[in-house]
Known about the structure:
The protein has helices at 11-22, 76-80, 87-96, 109-120, 156-164, 208-215, 266-270, 307-327, 382-398; strands at 3-7, 26-30, 48-49, 53-54, 125-127, 168-170, 175-181, 184-190, 194-196, 199-202, 228-235, 249-252, 257-261, 281-288, 295-297, 300-302, 335-336, 340-341, 365-367. The protein is of the alpha/beta class. The N and C termini lie close together (10 Å). It folds into two domains: 3-98 and 146-223 and 344-398, FAD/NAD(P)-binding domain (3-Layer(bba) Sandwich), CATH 3.50.50; 104-128 and 225-341, 2-Layer Sandwich (Glucose Oxidase, domain 3).
Amino acid sequence: MKDVIVVGSGAGGATVARELSKKGVNVTLIEKGPFVKPKKAYEHYENSDVGVELLKTACVGGTTMVTAGNAVRTCQKRLKKFGINLEEEFHEAELEMGVGTLPDSHFGEGTLKIMAAAESLGINVQKMPKSINPNSCKPCGKCAFGCPKDAKWTSLEYIEDAKKSGTRVVENTEVTELIIEDGEVKGVRSREKEFYADEVVLAPGAVETPRILRRAGLDAGDNFFVDTFVTVGGILKGVEFNKEVQMNALIKKSDDVILAPHFSEILVEKLSSHGARTRDIIGLMVKIKDETSGKIREGSVVKYSTANDVALLAEGSALAGSILTEVGVDPNTLKSTHARGAHPGGTAAVGSVVDKNLETEISGLFVADASVLPEAPGAPPVLTIVALAKRLGKYLGQN
């Protein structure tokens, strides 16, 4: 049986490792960060300011450890144009991850007020699909820090399955380059060690993947997107919105702009002159499908907001202000955070750097993270990454 190295243990890497190990493939899963409990994941953020503040983590489980548990299908139509039909894989992932909307008991006062206000303004509102077990979830507002109750699906679940099937997990090991001979991948190198295999799957994320590819001579790292977002909020005394399940509703302005209930600690500081306390802040995330205006290079990450990005953020922010005013927020207290990016991707896009089987021009070298997405999803991409990785696992398991 062949040997496969998977680099990165987030949504893509963990899924490929699980799929292959179940088929009897010898899998080595290599992760830059350490094993940590979900409730400690916030200690492993590796944020950087690249024009927008880029949010990412380095630990076993990757960014799945600090997501809000949102599970929506994204990029489905665009991927079909490249011959990638994920219908079967989406269905499998949704069943395995327990995707569904949370019961009414898990909707707090602030979220309900936002939903009612949006509906009164004639705006489409729906419950956000989540990969959260409501029986374990005790709403506390800490999804993005790492779930203290372990109620949210993370790729740790797939990693545990993979380990039971024989996958070897190597933590605290950063892969720096590929071992290539005569146009074929033979393994990977870290700073201390070499690992050899018949095939390699890269999934360390849309910043590190293109850097590894570029060191191997591939033209990766362009077309960088991040799903730019801001959080608009204001004061609603005693609402305790900070303790609610975050992003529990989806307000769709257009294919390019979505809004979701979201608390940001940044707004507490911005509203301190109004005497605001954490429990008094209510907010809406405004997330856009940003243009692929960024670049990843060896020593730099560049991402700027285009004129169109700024216009979309302004449009969404105006709507957020209208909804929050309808909720009862004093318009004089409305503030916005700086622009941030939570979903980096596009830097090894299908149709450009990888083919429809997610293989590069180097034989045996594949990519299975958000790098392969051909456009910004404009919504949380975890479910799509899992579906793509499932498809890749099936493909590699047949060969």
